[in-house]
Every structure is written in structure tokens, then in C-alpha cells.
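Following up on my earlier thread - several people asked me to post the actual chain instead of describing it. Fair enough. Here it is, all 540 residues.
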Amino acid sequence: MLVLFETPLGFCLFKFNEGKFSSTDIWKEFETPERANAAIKLKAIHRFGSTADAVEDITAMQEGKLSKALQDFLTDEVVKRGKKDKLAVIDKTLASSIHKKLGIDVVSDSTSLDLFRGIRGQLATLLDGLNPQDMATMNLGLSHSLSRFKLKFSPDKIDTMVIQAVALIDDLDKEINVYSMRIKEWYGWHFPEMGKIVVDNLAYAKVVKTLGIRTNAAITSLADILPEDLEAAVKASSEISMGSEISEGDMEHIRHLCDQVISITEYRSQLGEYLQNRMHAIAPNLTALVGEFIGARLISHAGSLNNLAKQPASTVQIFGAEKALFRALKAKHNTPKYGLLYHASLVSQTPPKLKGKMSRMLATKTSLSARVDAIADVNTKSDDQAPSIGVAYRAKLESRIRALSYRSDLNPAPGQRGRVSRNHPKFEMSGGPATAKYNTAADSAAEEVKADRLKRKEENRAAKEAKKGKKARKEDSNDDQGERMEVDGADNNEDEDEEKEKERKRLRKLEKRAAKEAARALKAQTEDGDGEAKKKKKSD
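Reply from S.P.:
Thanks for posting it. Predicted structure:
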């Protein structure tokens, strides 16, 4: 049996008695240096050329990979020499790689671990001419180099780069907005009309830097910055602007501020490209599903890609909405349905009433994609088919969006039953001259029937209203009688006052009548006296 063992010097190939390998007391063969030399012999050794080669080969071996140097060594010493012995290795993953690529029968079990433990204890004896102190020094140096290599190229470090990059992008966006607002406020005192014409922050800063004072608009070309219509609008507004005048010193400071906005914006675009490349390298499926910026923010919120892969879908769904969640739990209100995933394109293009459902489905697929990216190795991530799972999930979710939207249009909510959710085009018959047209004269009978029906309805309505009116009048008369009886019983004092008043009026009338009769009688007597006097005169 052959035994593959790694040392600071290189890879060593030992020859061991296969009969003793099956024994449970294999450790007894390495109790003394003499017994160890009798049980196992060194057959070949592959020395490392440099510390870098040693670090590379040992790292590949620890990861279960077959390096180029180890493959050449085993090919020369085992395959080409036609040896049929079994090969004992310490790692099962490395054993499968050797068997797959070289076709060698490999053994890796608990018995082999005892064998490797014995070789490590008697290594200085098995390698003739090697000083134990030199071996300890080489072990220490290789351990330090290997530790530095692992820390330098750790996947967590790549996650850290992504986390820092997305945090810096957010800071740069805030700085650009603050500086742009300051430019518009400062330059707006001189040319306030341009703020409504040029809306983009970068274009506004470039126009201010190129234009300077607004009187230069007539002789300044802005074709490289603005389209023709906006350029014409800026030049026309500069002639009738109501802004105040500024000096060249003020304009110089505004130009410096514009340079800051332009440089920060350019660096922000470069940083966005860097983040996109990093995300495609470490999380291709997650990037294909939610995009590089949302994926980077999810990784940043979780702390690393491995931490994100450990989170359940329900936690990923509300990443970024923790305050709203605990506020809702405290007030016993509805909990939030989405956090950072709200800004994903799959959620934004979903109808409002389906955003919660889409966020839940997207969180499930995001969690699965993060787990695939976390356990995949570097070679798998660099393959062209690496984001295949994320692309398939995205296509499935888009199909689900269309199905849910179509179903919601056919079955509206209870409060929207009467609304028409789809605007169907009006159907019109079209055809050649021989197409039959609708005969409107045939509707006369139907119109007469309809008129008779309406007339009968009107008559029935009038009869019902008359009957209701008669009944209402009868009820009013009964109510009046009852009210009259109540008034008579309640207003006795008022009736007495009225009777007294009537009596006084009657007596007054009687007095007036008596006075009139007395006056009439007196007048009659006077007239009789005058008549007798006239008769006496005539007689005389």
C-alpha cells in the first residue's frame, strides 16, 4: 500500500505493509523509531520549488482539489509505473478527485487516520538527514504563509468589499444631492429660470460650468450637454431672466462646486461598475434575480453572503423594515410586507394589491439563490451557466405576475365589483357591400310593446300615489280631531277670556246702538217741532 503525506518539504510517497494496515493496533507500529522504519519506507518525494508553490499546493489539497504538481507527481510515480497498490490519503474529497482523474484505488477511513498520525509523530526519523529543529522552523514558516494567504483571499473579505462599496454609493448619492441643491440655490439667484428647464443634477452642473454668467448664453454652445430644444429654451430664458447680477469671484466658487459634483458623479459610476462586477463574481444567481444593488444591500444588511444564506425567507422579506415590524407588533397592527425587496424590479412592476404576495415569493427565491451562491465554489461561479438558477427563478416569477394580474382582472375585489377592469374595444361588424345591415324598421313592434309597458307602469304608479294620498288625508283628519279634543281640554282658561271679551264687545255694540236710536229720536222730534211751527205761520 502507498501512502501520500504532505510535509513542509513537499509531497512524500511511503510504502506500507498492507497486511498491517487492516490491524486495529496500527499505532503500535510507530511506538519507536526502529519499529516505524521497519513498517514504512520512503519511496519518492516531490519538493516544493518556493513558499508560494507550497502555499498553493497545500491550499488545494486542503480544499480537496488535485493540484497540477501533485497530479504530475502521482502520474510519474504510480500511473506510469503501473503500480496496482492502493493509495491512502487523509482527505475523502481529495481521494475522490484522485480516483476520478487518475483512476487510482484510494483509501480514506479511520484506520488511515491512525496511520497518518503515526507518520507525523516519526516524520524526522522517516526522512533521513533531516534535523528536527529545521523541520519545526519550516512548519512555522509555512503555517504563517498559509494563514496570510487564507486571510488575504477569504470569501468574507470579498463580502466586505461589496458591503463597503454599496455603503459608499449611498454616501455619494447623498453628497451629490446636497451639492446639487446648493448649486441650484446659489446659481438660482442669478438665473432662476434654468432650474425648471434642466432637471438632471449632472447636466445642470455642466451647464453652469460651461455657461458662467447668463449673458454668455448667446455665444456659448451647449450642444454637447443638452438637446437642441433644451438648449434653445435656456438661451431664450437667459434673455428675459429676472435674476440678479453676480461677479466673477462668485462665479469662480460656483464653478469649483460644479467640478466637485461632476467628479463625484463620475466616480459614482465607476464604483457602480465595480460593484456590478463583484456581485456577478460572488453571487451570480442573487444578482440575476434582484439586481446587483438590491443584492449588495441584502448582503450588507445580513453581514455576509453566508449569513444571508442562513436566514429564512420570512426574515429576508422584511430586511430593512425592522422598526416598522416592532412598531406594528407593539401597537398590534398589521406587520410590514416588504423591506429592501420593495425596490426590486419584480415588486415595482407588480400591481399594488399584489405587491405583498410578490414580495413573499421573491423572498423565497432570494433565500434559495443566496444559498446556492454561498455553497458554490469559485470555478462554478465563474462559469457562463452560473446564474442559470437565478434566471430561471426570475422567469418563473414574471410568469406568476402575469397570471396573478390576469386573475385579479377577471375576479375583482368585493369593493370593485361594479368597476370595469378591462377596457374592451367596441365590436363593430365590418365586411364588403354584400354584408347584411341591421333593419331599424323592424323595431316598430318592439317599440310599441315597450311604450305600452311604460304607460301601464305610469298608470299603476298614479293609482298607488292616489291611494296613498287618500289614506294620508284620512289619517290627517283623525289626527286633527284628536288634537282638537286635546286643545279643548287644555285651553279652558283661554275660552273664558274669549267669552268675556265677546261679552264686552256685545255690550259695547248695544251701547252704540242705543246711542244711535236716541240720536235718531231726537232728530225726529226736532223735525216734528219745525213742521208744526211752519204750519202755524201758514195759518196765520
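The mean pLDDT is 81. That should answer part of your original question.
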